[in-house]
Every structure is written in C-alpha cells, then in structure tokens.
Write a structure and sequence with these properties.
Number of strands: 20
Helix content: 25-40%
CATH topology of the largest domain: Phosphatase 2c, domain 1
Distance between the termini: 94 Å
Keywords: Hydrolase
Oligomer: single chain
Organism: Rubritalea profundi
CATH architecture of the largest domain: 4-Layer Sandwich
Protein name: PAC domain-containing protein
Number of helices: 13
Largest sheet: 6 strands, mixed
Shape: globular
Radius of gyration: 30 Å
GO molecular function: phosphatase activity
CATH class of the largest domain: Alpha Beta
Number of domains: 3
Pfam families: PAS_3, PAS_4, SpoIIE
Structural class: alpha+beta
Length: about 525
C-alpha cells in the first residue's frame, strides 16, 4: 500500500513539475527530491541547504528576504505556512526563479520541522517583467503622441488621460481630470451630447470612428476634433466604460461645406479602421500624413514646382516604417523616412515617439543634420529610461526651390536615389551615413547640398522592398530595385511607385512582403 501511495505521489509531483523538500529545523542537512536538485542545478550529495545557508545559492537581496520570512514563520506559533518566491543562481551562473512553499511542524509550540514543495516559475516571472516593460512603453507613447487619449468609466468619468488631454481642457496635470466628466469643462449642451454618444457605444458595442465633433466651451471659442471612440472591456470581457482618441482639426474646419468634405474624406480613410485592431493600431494609423487630413496642406508649399508621391504597405498590423512630409514655407518642403528595428508593438511605439520628437525638433527642420541630431537626443533620452535596446534608421531631405538646393542627411539609412535631370542615370549621392537614431546621444550627423535644378527626382525608401524574397528565399535585391526604378521612370507613366511595387510583387509571386514597404518621392516639374 505504501509503495502504491508513493508511486501515486511521484506521478502527481511529476505532472505538476514540482519537487519536495524536508528539513529538520537547525540541521545542516536537508532532503531534496530529484526535481529540486534539477531546479538548483546540483547533485544530491553536494546540494546546498537553501533554508539554513540561503546566501550560498540565492542572489543577495533574496537571501536576506528568505531569512526574514523564515524567522517570522518559525517564531510565530500560530503561523503554519512558509512561502517565498526567490532567485537561485545555479553553478553555471544561470539565474532561475523558484516558488518555495512549506508547512511548519511544531511540537509543544516549537517549530521542529519544515516540509514543502518547490517549482521553477522563471517563465512566469519573465512574462511578468515583459508585461511591465510593455506597459511602461505604452505609457511613454500615450504621453508623447500629439493627440488626446482618454479612458472613461461607465458613468463617463475620466479614469486615465494623457498630458495632451489635460492641456486641452486647461488642466495643469492629468490627475486633475480623474473622477471628473465632460460636464466639468464643456457647456451643458456639448457635454450632454458626448455623454449620449458614450452611453450608446456602451449599450450597442459599436464604435465611433473618424467622426468630426464640435466642442463648445463656456469661456473660449468652439473647437473641432476628429474622434475615435470604442467600448472598453476588461480582461474578462466585462464592460468598463469607453476609451478614445481625439485629434484637433479646428484649423481645417473653416465652413460647413468644408467640414462636410473633410468628414466624408475622413470616413473614407477610416473605413479600414472598422476592424477591432486596438488602440495602438488606431494611434499609429492616425500619425501617417496621408491619413491625417492635411496632405494637401503639406504639399501646397511646392505646388507647381514638384509632385510628391508616397507608398506605404505595412507587413503586419503594427508597422515599424514611417514617413512624413513637412511644409517649410513657400517653395520649400522636407521629406522624412525611417525604419525602426523589428516589428510589432515595440517598433510601433518607437514610431509614435519619433512622430512626437519631429514636432519638438520642427524649428530645425530646414537643416537635415541639425534636425536628425535633435531627434536623436530626444529618442536616446526616452529609451534611456527603459532597459530596451531599440534604434531606428532615418533619412531626411529638404527641397529648397528658393535657394536651388537639395539638402540630404542620413542616420544609418539607405541614401536617396537621385536621378540626374535630362538623363536616365543616378547621380552620385556621397552623404556620410551617421549612426542610427537611439544609439548615441552625442552622435554627429553630416549633410550634403546638391543643386536642385540638376535633379529630376529624389526617391526615399526603406529596405523592405528590395529585401523581399520569393518562395525559394531569394531576395529581389537592391540592383534589381534600382534597375526597375529607372525602367519605370523611362516609361513616363503615372503612379510610378505603384508600378515599382508591382514589379517587386511579381518577384515574390503571391508570397507578399516580409517587411514593411515605405517609399516617398519628389519629382521636379
């Protein structure tokens, strides 16, 4: 019977991946099952007593913590349980997390024996650390994106906002909004309208996407915002309230007719947002210049002088490529492109940081090297507050028709393809490549200036298009990319970037792009 019970116990412990230990209080020796020895990375004959000599195997701070917890468990006559999570350093140097649980056995009120179990919880601890990291980075984005972000409970009271939202309603800090509602800031008519909208979202589960709403204030003029609002559910699927993103579009709402045109345009652009891709997807898409409703304004400074065209194909829902067009006054425009390391949430968060940093560095936007240097300092400082190694390559050019100059600077990024006017060949672009953004806070970037009237076209791009591979794993390659670009130009047809992408897709034959594809071109008239 005893052997049968022991066999059953062994099977149960094996299934639970736990090991057992048994210690007579005060003795040097301790019993460990084979599984415990595996956790400690040692053999039974030289296994350390983790309870009597924790400093021999635990990291220092955990050893001190274990001693305190053990002392309390042994001294308190009413305490039966001993529990701790601690880090063990194996002889190989590898650190593992262990969950240790035990029962105190007493005789006449004195602790004489501890018996318990032990299990490796390293995977769970690492997952918790990764989750905390992701939350910290998400908070960085929420506080740095140039839009209002807010969460509200089922009574439409603010529970979380970013700095931009606090500034928008005239508060000095985010905490001033917590527990308040729109009724504390807007006119009764305006707050009643938003409250009705939010109740409808919670009742039906249907979001509001891309809607232009009028905000009426008691002590200032009306404003207009583009709104994305979604029902907010907790991890168990229970309704917690609503969350939303609002973008100030007051400047582009000049008349009712213009407002209707913009509303239709935004609804068309936001049609793809109907899928529930989450807040991160919504924020990232809203950052793209082709989606923010200001594209015509961005390129108006070079109207009649040049044509600007872009192509953006994300490989995943959250992309790491980004581009922007910066109007710099009449006859002058800046073109920016970047490629953040990796894919997914982290790269998308860094893209959002870069967008915010571009706004802060806007007073240097006439000069590419200074512009990149300012952005690099900001990105290094933000990433320096985390233990995450991230970087982004970038290229920035300024087309200045007033001074007949094309200024170019690169932060570890592919240099632009410059087509010589009146010919079918590329000019030699000899701009030194500086380090990628986010590596060194004191990095130095250089720029080169070319005569604009000698250039027919400048193409900026990320490596996703020429590194696209077919089913045999063979990449399209930069040579074929450049040759196809010149071939497309020679044909003289419109939609140049679409046809260039089509050539790349014909190479991969239905496999699709492995990486984000982003291209931005300026063609001189």
């Amino acid at each position: 019977m005893h052997d049968s019970f022991q066999d059953t116990l062994d099977l149960v412990l094996k299934a639970s991946n736990e090991g057992i230990w048994d210690w007579n209080v005060g003795e040097d020796s301790i019993y460990y099952s084979d599984r415990v020895c595996q956790f400690l990375g040692c053999k039974k004959e030289n296994a350390p007593n983790i309870l009597k000599n924790p400093e021999s195997v635990l990291v220092p701070e955990d050893a001190a913590y274990l001693k305190n917890i053990l002392e309390l468990a042994l001294m308190d006559e009413e305490e039966e349980l001993f529990a701790i999570d601690c880090r063990v350093m194996r002889p190989t140097g590898k650190i593992v997390w262990l969950r240790v649980r035990g029962v105190v056995v007493r005789e006449d009120g004195e602790a004489v024996r501890l018996v318990g179990s032990m299990i490796d919880i390293s995977k769970r601890k690492h997952a918790e650390e990764s989750l905390a990291e992701e939350r910290a980075m998400l908070r960085l984005v929420v506080d740095n994106v140039p839009v209002q972000v807010y969460f509200k409970d089922i009574h439409s009271r603010f529970t979380l906002v970013n700095k931009r939202q606090a500034e928008w309603v005239g508060c000095s800090s985010e905490m001033e909004l917590i527990g308040k509602s729109d009724a504390d800031f807007y006119t009764p008519t305006g707050s009643k309208y938003t409250h009705f909208d939010e109740q409808k979202i919670m009742d039906t589960g249907k979001p509001i996407v891309g809607e232009i709403q009028r905000e009426t204030w008691p002590h200032r003029g009306d404003t207009f915002v583009q709104v994305v609002k979604q029902p907010w559910y907790d991890s168990r699927g229970r309704l917690s309230g609503t969350f939303g993103v609002s973008t100030d579009v007051t400047g582009i709402v000049g008349s009712q007719e213009r407002l209707e045109e913009i509303a239709l345009d935004l609804q068309a652009k936001n049609h793809s947002y109907q899928e529930e891709l989450g807040l991160a997807r919504e924020v990232q898409q809203a950052l793209l210049p082709s989606n923010d409703g200001h594209w015509d304004e961005r390129i108006a400074t070079v109207a009649g002088l040049a044509k600007i065209e872009s192509k953006y194909i994300p490989a995943t829902e959250l992309a790491g490529d980004y581009f922007d067009v910066i109007p710099l006054g009449k006859g002058k425009v800046g073109l920016f492109i970047c490629d953040v390391m990796g894919h997914g949430v982290r790269s998308a968060l860094v893209v959002a940081m870069i967008k915010g940093l571009m706004e802060k560095a806007s007073h240097h936007a006439d000069w590419p090297a200074k512009f990149l240097r300012k952005m690099n300092k900001g990105l290094c400082r933000i990433l320096g507050t985390t233990d995450v190694d991230m970087f982004a390559t970038a290229c920035y050019i300024v087309a200045d028709f007033n001074e007949n100059a094309l200024r170019v600077a690169s932060a570890g990024h592919d240099l632009p393809l410059l087509v010589e006017r009146g010919s079918r060949v590329l000019m030699d672009c000899d701009v030194p490549k500086g380090p990628a953004l986010g590596f060194f806070e004191d990095a130095v970037f250089e720029s080169r200036t070319y005569e604009l009237n000698t250039i027919a076209e400048a193409l900026l791009y990320t490596d996703g298009i020429y590194e696209s591979a077919n089913k045999r794993g063979i990449e399209w390659g930069k040579e074929q990319f450049v040759a196809s670009f010149l071939e497309v130009r020679q044909s003289g047809e419109t939609e140049e970037l679409d046809r260039l992408c089509a050539k790349a897709l014909s190479w991969v034959k239905g496999k699709g792009f492995d990486d984000d594809v982003c291209m931005l071109t300026i063609r001189m008239d």
